[in-house]
Specification:
CATH topology of the largest domain: Tetracycline Repressor, domain 2
Order of helices and strands: HHHHHHHHHH
Structural class: mainly alpha
Radius of gyration: 19 Å
Shape: elongated
CATH class of the largest domain: Mainly Alpha
Strand content: under 5%
Number of helices: 10
Length: 193
């Protein structure tokens, strides 16, 4: 296991604080107090609260985009691509639940032009998922359905997954969760054999 750096510790504690208080309600002074810092020391790690939000959101979003691009470019059948997409989503969420929470709950707090850039990247991810569903319908692997609605339902199902990994007492197994979600989603879109 890699040793946590001071910067890693700063980011993880700040993410937890923002998750508890909300982005708008969290001040630089709150961040400093949470880490037992002087306010000026916070700026050794970030330029501003907004830059923290940008770095965190674009970092995890890039990981999701990279995963789906690899899946999309693979030679797998559409049903296998969907399974790999679900698996990658759960794995990323299990490793980075507070960043995933930020992604779900706080992205609207981005300032322009970063907000529009974020939205375009999010739409790109959604289009890639929808293209997998369309491919599966075309090949007969998936039932005929409204691909946009199915995309949003799948993403809504996946987006809440971070909550399972925040509860340290629960110790959610990402592999078991992945299998349960694959089964749940599969029964809605995959043709019955």
């Amino acid at each position: 296991m890699l040793k946590e750096t001071k910067r890693d510790r700063f980011f993880s504690k700040t993410l937890i604080l923002i998750h508890k208080k909300g982005f708008k309600a969290t001040t630089i002074r709150d961040i400093a107090q949470n880490l037992h810092f002087e306010v000026a020391n916070v700026y050794n790690y970030i330029d501003s609260k907004q830059s923290f939000l940008e770095e965190s959101l674009f970092g995890i979003q890039q990981e999701f985009l990279k995963a789906i691009e690899i899946i999309e470019d693979s030679e797998f059948h559409a049903s296998d691509k969907l399974e790999h997409l679900i698996g990658s989503y759960i794995q990323i969420s299990s490793r980075r639940p507070y960043e995933q929470a930020l992604l779900v709950n706080e992205w609207r707090n981005l300032n322009e032009p970063k907000l529009q850039e974020f939205v375009k990247r999010r739409e790109n991810y959604e289009q890639k998922l929808e293209s997998i569903l369309i491919e599966g319908m075309r090949t007969g692997e998936f039932n005929k359905m409204d691909s946009q609605m199915a995309t949003q339902i799948i993403l809504a199902t996946l987006r809440w997954s971070y909550k399972q990994f925040l509860d340290q007492q629960r110790k959610t197994n990402p592999l078991a969760m992945k299998e349960q979600l694959i089964d749940f989603i599969r029964y809605g879109i995959v043709l019955k054999l």
